UniProtKB/TrEMBL annotation:
One of its GO terms (biological process) is heme oxidation. It comes from Rhodoblastus acidophilus (Rhodopseudomonas acidophila). SUPFAM superfamilies: Heme oxygenase-like (SSF48613). One of its GO terms (molecular function) is heme oxygenase (decyclizing) activity. Pfam families: Heme_oxygenase (PF01126). This is Heme oxygenase.
Amino acid sequence: MTRSPPPALHSGRPDGRTRLREATRADHERLHRQPAFAALADATLDLPAYRALLARLYGFHATLERLLGERIDADRADWADLRAPRAIWLWRDLRDLDVSEDELARLPLAEPGQLPDLVDEGRLVGCLYVRAGSTLGGRLMAKGLDPLLGPGGENGRRFLSGCGGADAQWRQCCAAIERATDAGRWDAMREGAAVTFTALESWMNGGA
């Protein structure tokens, strides 16, 4: 019995998601070398450093969510999961780690000008690719937190563990990538992903 080729190869070229992953591989790998993320991947963060990492991520995602909320059409069912909040899970992680609500209220937040300009749907989808993909990649890092937080459980690692429907969000993002590719928005989508990776790296490095 002859096996059918993977769906990505039926048309003779990779699907949009595969193309986007390859096109932004260097940006993705550079972000993984960012010191805080590298230490997280190596399971060498102590608790204060882990809190600082989560706080910085919160500052980025809280502002990004507000911008996405302004750009994602609330009436489109095919975008519903992409509107799901992610910053709330960082907030809950920080509360799990004994960060007070007063301290949370004082955390620095990214300014809109520090985030990608989502001027069209292609760039928007590229940005969503980075956001949705980060929650999936975080699961491996979450397992590396066992020495710090204890084995199992979600407390302190809800964001990295993908709480709040990360799988559904990723599926909807992949569908959006294919639609954007078919609609001729490839260049804008690739640019949106690249500038989002760069914006996140700059923010994590203390960019102001």
